[in-house]
Amino acid sequence: MLIRYKKDFEKIAMGLLSFMPEEKRDVKKLQQTMKAYEENSNWQLFLWRDEDILGAIGIRLEDDMHIIIQHIGVNPSHRNMGIGKKMIEAIKTQFENKYTIQADNSTEDFYKQCLMTE
After folding, report:
1. From the first residue on, what is the mean pLDDT of each consecutive set of 10 residues in the chain (118 residues)?
2. Which residues constitute the domain of residue 62?
Protein backbone atom coordinates (compact mmCIF):
# COMPACT_ATOMS: atom_id res chain seq x y z
CA MET A 1 0.00 0.00 0.00
CA LEU A 2 1.24 3.46 -0.90
CA ILE A 3 1.47 5.89 2.04
CA ARG A 4 2.46 9.53 2.17
CA TYR A 5 5.94 10.26 3.56
CA LYS A 6 6.11 11.62 7.10
CA LYS A 7 9.17 12.94 8.94
CA ASP A 8 9.01 9.84 11.21
CA PHE A 9 10.12 7.77 8.20
CA GLU A 10 13.05 10.02 7.23
CA LYS A 11 15.87 7.50 7.77
CA ILE A 12 14.01 4.73 5.97
CA ALA A 13 13.15 7.06 3.07
CA MET A 14 16.74 8.29 2.83
CA GLY A 15 17.95 4.71 2.73
CA LEU A 16 15.56 3.85 -0.09
CA LEU A 17 16.37 6.98 -2.09
CA SER A 18 20.08 6.27 -1.68
CA PHE A 19 19.65 3.42 -4.18
CA MET A 20 19.10 5.99 -6.94
CA PRO A 21 22.38 6.40 -8.87
CA GLU A 22 22.52 10.20 -8.54
CA GLU A 23 21.89 10.02 -4.77
CA LYS A 24 24.02 6.98 -4.03
CA ARG A 25 27.42 8.42 -3.26
CA ASP A 26 26.58 11.94 -2.18
CA VAL A 27 25.10 12.24 1.30
CA LYS A 28 24.80 16.01 0.96
CA LYS A 29 22.76 15.61 -2.26
CA LEU A 30 20.56 13.03 -0.54
CA GLN A 31 19.95 15.41 2.37
CA GLN A 32 19.04 18.20 -0.08
CA THR A 33 16.62 15.85 -1.85
CA MET A 34 14.92 14.96 1.44
CA LYS A 35 14.70 18.63 2.36
CA ALA A 36 13.06 19.37 -1.00
CA TYR A 37 10.44 16.67 -0.36
CA GLU A 38 9.75 18.13 3.07
CA GLU A 39 9.62 21.81 2.07
CA ASN A 40 8.52 22.02 -1.56
CA SER A 41 4.80 21.43 -2.01
CA ASN A 42 5.39 20.40 -5.65
CA TRP A 43 7.59 17.50 -4.54
CA GLN A 44 5.76 14.56 -2.98
CA LEU A 45 7.29 11.39 -1.59
CA PHE A 46 5.39 8.18 -1.03
CA LEU A 47 6.46 4.96 0.64
CA TRP A 48 5.37 1.43 -0.18
CA ARG A 49 4.37 -0.43 2.95
CA ASP A 50 3.69 -4.10 3.12
CA GLU A 51 4.49 -5.35 6.59
CA ASP A 52 7.54 -3.11 6.46
CA ILE A 53 8.40 -0.11 4.31
CA LEU A 54 9.97 -1.63 1.22
CA GLY A 55 10.04 1.14 -1.37
CA ALA A 56 9.88 4.86 -2.07
CA ILE A 57 8.62 6.80 -5.06
CA GLY A 58 9.01 10.54 -5.47
CA ILE A 59 7.06 12.75 -7.83
CA ARG A 60 7.25 16.36 -8.88
CA LEU A 61 4.16 18.34 -9.88
CA GLU A 62 5.51 20.03 -12.96
CA ASP A 63 2.46 22.19 -13.67
CA ASP A 64 -1.31 21.80 -13.61
CA MET A 65 -1.13 18.97 -16.11
CA HIS A 66 2.06 16.93 -15.56
CA ILE A 67 3.57 14.76 -12.86
CA ILE A 68 7.17 13.63 -13.19
CA ILE A 69 8.31 10.47 -11.44
CA GLN A 70 11.80 11.42 -10.32
CA HIS A 71 12.78 8.79 -7.74
CA ILE A 72 12.06 5.09 -7.35
CA GLY A 73 13.85 2.95 -4.82
CA VAL A 74 13.18 -0.56 -3.54
CA ASN A 75 14.92 -2.40 -0.73
CA PRO A 76 17.45 -4.68 -2.48
CA SER A 77 16.23 -7.78 -0.65
CA HIS A 78 12.74 -7.19 -2.09
CA ARG A 79 13.63 -6.39 -5.69
CA ASN A 80 12.21 -8.30 -8.66
CA MET A 81 8.96 -8.81 -6.75
CA GLY A 82 6.98 -6.14 -8.58
CA ILE A 83 7.11 -3.49 -5.86
CA GLY A 84 8.43 -0.76 -8.17
CA LYS A 85 5.69 -1.53 -10.67
CA LYS A 86 3.05 -1.53 -7.90
CA MET A 87 4.25 1.91 -6.77
CA ILE A 88 3.97 3.27 -10.32
CA GLU A 89 0.50 1.75 -10.70
CA ALA A 90 -0.57 3.30 -7.38
CA ILE A 91 0.68 6.73 -8.49
CA LYS A 92 -1.17 6.33 -11.78
CA THR A 93 -4.37 5.33 -9.99
CA GLN A 94 -4.10 8.26 -7.61
CA PHE A 95 -3.21 10.95 -10.15
CA GLU A 96 -3.99 9.93 -13.74
CA ASN A 97 -7.47 11.46 -13.82
CA LYS A 98 -5.97 14.90 -13.30
CA TYR A 99 -2.38 14.68 -14.58
CA THR A 100 -0.28 13.19 -17.34
CA ILE A 101 2.37 11.03 -15.71
CA GLN A 102 5.90 10.93 -17.07
CA ALA A 103 9.33 9.87 -15.88
CA ASP A 104 12.52 11.89 -15.72
CA ASN A 105 15.86 10.72 -17.12
CA SER A 106 16.79 8.72 -14.03
CA THR A 107 13.50 6.75 -13.87
CA GLU A 108 12.53 6.63 -17.54
CA ASP A 109 13.97 3.19 -18.39
CA PHE A 110 12.29 1.53 -15.41
CA TYR A 111 9.02 3.37 -16.08
CA LYS A 112 8.96 2.24 -19.72
CA GLN A 113 9.74 -1.33 -18.67
CA CYS A 114 6.77 -1.27 -16.28
CA LEU A 115 4.47 0.07 -19.02
CA MET A 116 5.52 -2.71 -21.38
CA THR A 117 4.50 -5.41 -18.88
CA GLU A 118 1.02 -4.03 -18.23
Report:
1. 95 93 84 95 96 96 94 94 95 93 94 83
2. 2-116
- Cα separation, 104 vs 10, in Å, equals 23
Largest Cα–Cα separation, the chain: 37
Give the DSSP per-residue string, 36-79: HHHH-TTEEEEEEESSSEEEEEEEEE-SSSEEEEEEEEE-GGGT
CATH number where 24 lies: 3.40.630.30
Q: Which helix (H) or strand (E) covers residue 99, if one does?
A: none
Q: What is the pTM assigned to this prediction?
A: 0.93
